[in-house]
Amino acid sequence: MEQRTPRHRPSGQYAAADSRRAAIIDAALALFAKAGYLNSSLAKIAEEAGTSATVITHHFGSKQRLLMAVLEAREERTVRTFGRLGPGSDSDPGSDPVFGGDDVRALFREVLALAAYNLTQPGLIELYTRLSAEAGDPAHPAHAYFTERYERVAHYLASALQRAVEAGQLKPGIDPESIAREILAVSDGLQVQWAIAEGRLDFVGLYRAYLDRLVQALAVDGEGLGEPTDPATP
């Protein structure tokens, strides 16, 4: 009996498929950011991506799964650029991110650097601003994603603040959980204003001033973040 050699798809076809998926994700990100998830049809996304709704369904299964692929792609980009602020490491993907150890000033500088990086991708900020509002509805497909993400980031920030208290850097008796929620609220509020102002708001400058005042109020030595070493960086 003749044994047949298994047929493999040429590597070029894999590359073409990956390129097509990436184009669809980019088109969906842009449309979700501009019109919102609820007002973006697969037909419109397909038109932007230069393909068909059938092809999108083939690659992603549904509009809801496409949305999750867009959100996951955003997380992956952040982790590649800011590994210390991303979940886990290559050896332990489930581990917590390293939020500046017990040095709260290092933590805030990393958070500021991430905020500055996000400004280079305005579509992502617009997407998050719009989606976070839509996702307040428990029936929205991104509701669980945002719920989990807020809880995760608040936990990581609170843990870092608690370590700074234990290291004697921050005053005892503070409430790390409340402060973590406040930091997230200020960040999200400034992002909304930045998006409405079409990028004319000095997001990083305002956010840095807030974190500087916060660390002065919390730190045992009463000092702030200090002057940026480079005016172009946080």
Structure, described:
The termini are far apart. By secondary structure, the chain is mainly alpha-helical. The N terminus is likely disordered. It folds into two domains: 60 residues, Homeodomain-like (Arc Repressor Mutant, subunit A), CATH 1.10.10; 153 residues, Tetracycline Repressor, domain 2. It has nine helices and no strands.
Strands, helices and their partners?
Blueprint: H1 11-35, H2 42-49, H3 53-60, H4 63-81, H5 104-118, H6 122-134, H7 143-166, H8 176-196, H9 203-218
Helix pairs in contact: 1-2, 1-4, 1-6, 2-3, 5-9, 6-8, 7-8, 8-9
Features:
mainly alpha; Arc Repressor Mutant, subunit A; 2 domains; 234 residues; Tetracycline Repressor, domain 2; elongated
Structural class by SSE content = mainly alpha
Total discrete domains: 2
Order of helices and strands: HHHHHHHHH
The major pleated sheet works out as: none
Q: What spatial form do the alpha-carbon principal axes imply?
A: elongated
Count all strands and give the number. 0
Ranges where pLDDT stays below 50 over 5 or more residues in a row are 1-6, 86-100
CATH architecture of the largest domain: Orthogonal Bundle
Rg calculated over all Cα atoms: 21 Å
- Number of DSSP helices? 9
Cα end-to-end separation = 69 Å
Identify the CATH class of the largest domain: Mainly Alpha
Short description:
The chain is mostly helical. It is built from nine helices and no strands. The chain has helices spanning 11-35, 42-49, 53-60, 63-81, 104-118, 122-134, 143-166, 176-196, 203-218.
